[in-house]
Amino acid sequence: MKNIAVIGTGYVGLVSGAGISDFGHNVVCADIDKNKIKHLQNGEIPIYEPGLQELVNRNVQSARLSFSSDVNKSIEDADVIFIAVGTPEGENGASDLTAVLDVARAIGKNLNSYKVICTKSTVPIGTGAKISKIINETSNNLLEFDYVSNPEFLREGSAVKDFLWPDRVIIGASNVRAFDIMKNVYRPLYINETPVIETTIETAELIKYASNAFLSVKISYMNEIANMCDEIGADVHVVSKAMGIDGRISPKFLHPGPGFGGSCFPKDTKALVSMAEKYGTNLNVVESAITANQLQKERMVKKLFKLLNNDVKGKTIAVLGLAFKAQTDDVRESPSINIIDALINNGANVKAFDPAANDNMKKLFEDLDTYMSWEETVKDADCVVIMTEWNEFRGIDLSKLKELVKHPNLLDCRNILKIDDLEKQGFNYDNVGRKKR
Ligand code: UGA
């Protein structure tokens, strides 16, 4: 059993801290935000993440997991320190490393014995070397430590499952001692025979970006194929199903939609392109995926306007789904933002509902009219637009929907409603790449 400090209590830090304590280690999750720590100490989880509350409760009760705003002491007491603070988008798409480097300085100042310093945050290639340099400088080169890159592949909404049952674990380190300590941290996963890739620090750093950018390219590609389906009257679901059966392609991440959002793909693709430029190489494919994604978000706005014959002024539009995907309350880079923005700017009345993200969207659009159910939201609407694939929207009874709305216009940006039913109910509808009428 190791003593572990996880610095940063966002999605990555909280899920990783709780998950590592579940592996049997003593974990303290530390953050300089005293208020956040107070809530966590009272058992309140500040983010919506299925299964996280239970995971935290279980490990707090077993006294393996605790929370502290004393970052310095948490560092002193730890054998392994995970850096899990945010790396927001900085200038020209590059990552802003301010928080990561602040933690590195705190580690250097409080280094009182040999420790492994491990980065979970998504950081540009070469950050490991920067962190090591800072720790050496601030600790006056007096004590030994090892640096490890251990990127995470958690998806919001299924982060707990992704942490406890990952497809693979990536460990980038420079000596056997560090690899052995990390092996001990992830012992249950080694026993489960989860694939573990042991590699250099720089390779580990790149694996994370290369994976996220590849998935972004895959989505943008499928979105463009869907747009082509729109034009030629083909059904993108049949196309993607047939493609996915090919083991070389795989059926995952082939769902067309309103464009990818969230805190990772948009930021990481830009950061990777910016890194490639720095190293004098090209990532034309990723650049195109970024452009295609922006166009996809705009295309959804155009589709919506077209359903209403470009006459949205004074019309009431019900937006169902605000989060960037289902099972999260996160609205960062959500395609709903583009839709709401365009509607407001063109004089429409927006009624909006998300099962988890109403409050977060109201931080961006203060006066947004939000509701607590889809039924209230669609009442007397001139058009309904589905932006997020929540299960409760999949189950919408279309005859009931038709009774509630003023006019049966519907844009399904997630392709979750059955076309036959929409036709039967006489909806004027559109979707992303599915044959219609
Ligand atoms: C993503 C990665 O999937 C994680 O492996 C990674 O750890 C994480 O970023 C990160 O870097 O922290 P996340 O952003 O939570 O996770 O969400 P995803 O499920 O990957 O979805 C991203 C976006 O792509 C969403 O807007 C989603 O709606 C969209 N998407 C996804 C599609 O449009 N089509 C698909 O087939 C799949």
Describe the model.
By secondary structure, this protein is an alpha/beta fold. Among the domains are: 3-199, 3-Layer(aba) Sandwich (Rossmann fold); 214-290, N-(1-d-carboxylethyl)-l-norvaline Dehydrogenase, domain 2 (Orthogonal Bundle), CATH 1.10.1040.10. It has 19 helices and 14 strands. It has a 6-stranded parallel beta sheet, with helices on both faces. The chain has a 6-stranded parallel beta sheet with strand order 11-10-9-12-13-14. Helix 1 links the parallel strand 1 and strand 2 (26-30). Helix 12 (265-278) runs antiparallel to helix 13 (284-307). It is elongated, with a radius of gyration of 24 Å. The structure holds uridine-5'-diphosphate-glucuronic acid (UGA). The site of uridine-5'-diphosphate-glucuronic acid has 21 residues, from helix 10 and helix 12. Uridine-5'-diphosphate-glucuronic acid (UGA) is lined by residues 122, 152-156, 212, 215, 219, 253-255, 257, 260-262, 264-265, 268, 324-325.
Q: Which small compounds were modeled alongside the protein? A: uridine-5'-diphosphate-glucuronic acid
Give the helix tally. Answer: 19
User: Any guess at the CATH architecture of the domain at 3-199?
Assistant: 3-Layer(aba) Sandwich
From the alpha carbons, calculate the radius of gyration and give it in angstroms.
Answer: 24 Å
What's the name of the CATH homologous superfamily of the domain at 3-199?
NAD(P)-binding Rossmann-like Domain
Strand order of the largest sheet: 3-2-1-4-5-6
